[in-house]
Amino acid sequence: MEIMVTKQRKDLLMNVPALKKLDKMLTDCLDNFKDQTEFWYVSKDANESEKGVQRSDKWWLPTVKVPPGGLSEESRKWMQKQKDCANQVLKASMAINAEILAEMEIPESYMENLPKNSRDSLGEVTYKSITLEYFDPGQFLSSIDLSSEHKILDLKNKIEASMIIWKRKMNQKESRSSWNSSSKMERRELFEERAETILLLLKQRFPGLPQSLLDISKIESNKDIGHAVLESYSRVLESLANTVMNRIEDVLYADEVAQNSSDANGTPASSQTPKVEHTSTISDLIGWEADQGDT
User: Fold this and answer.
1) By the 8 A CB rule, do 163 and 130 touch?
2) What's the rounded Cα separation, in Å, for the pair 180 and 84?
3) What is the 3-state secondary structure (H, E, C) of the chain?
4) 61-99, pLDDT tens digit by residue?
5) CA 20 to 30 Å from 55, out of 25, 44, 175, 257?
6) CA atoms lying within 13 Å on the CB side of residue 234
7) pLDDT score recorded for residue 161
8) At 170, is the pLDDT very low, low, confident or very high (cuts 50, 70, 90)?
């Protein structure tokens, strides 16, 4: 008599421990900022004379202040180390999230709403750019207006839809063996590879980008509990790691501005760090209030 043995899924056995490790790495990174005193934050509602430096156009965030002349060399290196740690968590969680989303089935509702062909999906100009004989993905992106999150996401949606259309047409013609059909399939495979390269560059350049229509439709239609757990866990870590990265870059930018200002005024960088009371840390800014025993 054959005995039935329950086995855990390989994707869960691999990815759950990996995500827990990334979770701890990011938590430790945030904890490291508890005792720092070389930079602090000033409320966005403070007087202009009291405000610090703001790197981006996110006016709702507190501004960053550092000592005159910038951070000490030791603190600067330490900040870079924390940035590298957050970046490692970001890349790993992005990779896991992309892998899980790729394994999820594409729902019929998404397929039914696709345009008839990739030209209609991409638009005439973008379609011609991708299907040229000589294609440079970097040059292609430099020619596209990516000035807002909406435009970036719109391009991603169109590229993903076109990839699905090309795949579907290749699957429909797999049984045909004519030279003309084979040539068309090779061209579609080439275009699909180009589209994948564009998506990869977009994800690397804009890691905090919201989910695309394809991703959202997959998540909403997904009935696999394991996939749901892995996707949501990796997405939360990805989002938080990206936020930490941005806040660290804010501090490094404020440090650079202070150094340049000190050089312009001909004053040496301060070797004394002012004592800061009631310091807001990065974890305070992003609302990290969870108990350290929770993940």
Assistant:
1) no
2) 50
3) CCCCCCCCCHHHHHHHHHHHHHHHHHHHHHHCCCCCCCCEEECCCCCCCCCCECCCCCCCCCEEECCCCCCCHHHHHHHHHHHHHHHHHHHHHHHHHHHHHHHCCCCHHHHHCCCCCHHHHHCHHHHHHHCCCCCCHHHHHHCCCCCCHHHHHHHHHHHHHHHHHHHHHHHHCCCCCCHHHHHHHHHHHHHHHHHHHHHHHHHHHCCCCCCCHHHHHHHHHCCCHHHHHHHHHHHHHHHHHHHHHHHHHHHHHHHHHHHHHHHHHCCCCCCCCCCCCCCCCHHHHCCCCCCCCCC
4) 888 999 988 899 999 999 999 999 999 999 999 999 999
5) 25
6) 23
7) 93
8) confident
Q: How confident is the model over 195-223, as a mean pLDDT?
A: 91
CA-based nearest residue to 92, from 104, 84, 80: 84
159 has pLDDT over 90? yes
> 73, 70, 77: which is closest to 269 by C-alpha?
70
Ordered domains of the chain (ranges, CATH) = 10-93+238-285 (no CATH), 106-221 (1.20.58.1310)
The pLDDT tens digits of the residues spanning 118-145 come to 888 899 999 888 988 888 988 999 999 9
**Token couple for 77:** 């290196």
Q: Give the integer Cα–Cα distance in Å for 28 and 285.
A: 16
CA gap 251, 246 in Å, rounded? 9
